[in-house]
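Reopening this one. Same input as before:
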Amino acid sequence: MCASERTWREPPCSVGVAPLLTFAERKMTNFFLWALAGCAAGWIGFAVMGFNRKRGLLTSIIIGMAGGLVGGNLLAPMLSTGIAVNPSDFNPFPLVIAFAFAAACLIVSSMVHKRFGF
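Same output, byte for byte:
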C-alpha cells in the first residue's frame, strides 16, 4: 500500500532502498580520500624521492595532505572532466589530480627550501 491506499496506522511505504551514505558523508569521504592521496604523495616523496629530507617525514606528509585537499577541492572542479553526474559521488579523476597537486606542492616546497632555506 502506498500514499492514497494506506491508512493512518500503517507506516509510509518506502520506494527503493535508502542510500548508504548521505550527501555530507560522501563529501567527507572525498575529502578523506584527497587527504589520504596527499599523505601518500608526501610519504612517497620523502621515502623514495628524498624531498624535505632535512625537515622530516611529518612535514612532507602535512605538505602533501594540504596539496591533496587543495588539488581535489579547488583544482579538479575547474577541469571539465572532473565533474561527475552527482558531485558527491566518487570520481577517480579528482583523486589523481589531488595526488598530482600534492606531488607538485612537495616539489615546490623542496625547491624553496633548497633555495632560501625555509
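So the earlier flakiness isn't reproducible anymore. For the record, The chain is about 65% helix and 0% strand.
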